[in-house]
Design goal:
Elements lengths: L1 H34 L15 E5 L4 E5 L4 H7 L9 H20 L23 H18 L5
Antiparallel strand pairs: 1-2
């Protein structure tokens, strides 16, 4: 009888090793699956809203449809109040003529970037918000399109 008992134990040994490897494999697969990241929500379903720059008292309005500008304003741009209004006005006085000359010179500059002339009169007080958003659009466009407005 002892001989038979030893024979049975020797035959189950390979099965036990196989079960051990199967259980370890299942454990690793479960851990790998559990540690995986959940799928990110796609932002392609939500359209970015255009940024409206306006001053109601002057009946002045600019609408910016450039993708990424809203994100730039909310994340990268200096916060409202960081620059003084005079600083923003001075920069806009410098940027607008360069921008408009590129709009009018469509042979040398990309029509998809420089589409519209910006009617900015340096003698009109547009207010802080208009100057802030216009300045930040110029900064955003320089980053996005790798251009220099000088």
């Amino acid at each position: 009888m002892e001989y038979f008992l030893e024979l049975v134990c020797l035959q189950t040994l390979p099965i036990m090793k196989a079960l051990k490897y199967i259980l370890i494999s299942i454990l690793f697969i479960t851990l790998f699956y559990a540690c995986g990241t959940a799928p990110l929500k796609s932002s392609t379903n939500t359209k970015e809203q255009p940024v409206v720059i306006k001053n109601d008292s002057l009946a002045y309005e600019i609408i910016i449809f450039d993708i990424g500008f809203t994100t730039y304003l909310n994340t990268i741009a200096k916060p409202v109040g960081y620059h003084s209004e005079s600083y923003l006005e001075n920069r806009n006085r410098r940027y607008v003529p360069i921008w408009n000359s590129r709009v009018n010179n469509s042979f040398n500059y990309d029509n998809n970037i420089y589409e519209n002339v910006i009617d900015y009169n340096s003698h009109i007080n547009y207010g802080y918000e208009v100057n802030y958003k216009l300045f930040n659009y110029f900064e955003f466009a320089q980053r996005k399109y790798r251009m220099v407005l000088q």
